[in-house]
Design brief:
The protein has 209 residues and is of the alpha+beta class. 36% of the residues lie in helices and 27% in strands. The longest helix has 21 residues. The chain starts with 7 loop residues before the first helix and ends with a strand.
Amino acid sequence: MSDTKGPRWLDWAREIQALAQTGRHYSSDHFQTQRYARLTAIAAEIMAEHSQLPAPRAARVFERQKGYATPRVDVRAAVFRDDELLLVREASDGGWTMPGGWADVGDVPSRAAEREALEESGFRVKARRVIGVYDANRCEPMELFHAFKIVFLCELLGGAPTPSEETTEVAFFGRDEMPAVFSGERTRPRHVQDAFAVLADPSLPTVFD
């Protein structure tokens, strides 16, 4: 289980949207397609009722989703210098996170983590093993879709701390020096704890939900 649980209305809205998206993909009946469209609208209305996201905007995002509905994939790079973990400060909310982001279609997951680390921090890294695969329902800030998170232990190869358009600061933190505010669901205390645990004992198995 993840170390944070989203509100039930968010779970319901995501599930309704996913069922409607998959139903539209397989349906060849006009009336069934209309029913799935209505379910998509209901999911958007639930989102709007409990958040600041306008229903028309949520509906447009939902309607653009095609094919069988599956979780998205978020990758994170756990990079250590001696006993300190690399974190970047997100420009969007001011919170700290391990560098990473959504994997793109066609990405090799490990290379996506390496690329994100370079783009967001200025450091060249090499993914060496998977620390964990996590359920990653996002709710702070709210995201519309369910996600899985893969955290890679990465070797530091070189580079220099260089913020990007998405990050304002780059720094290394010891285990007892973690910043007070993390960036939403991008990095949670559990991910940090698991990264330090693997650093201390490389024989530990991969964590998974």
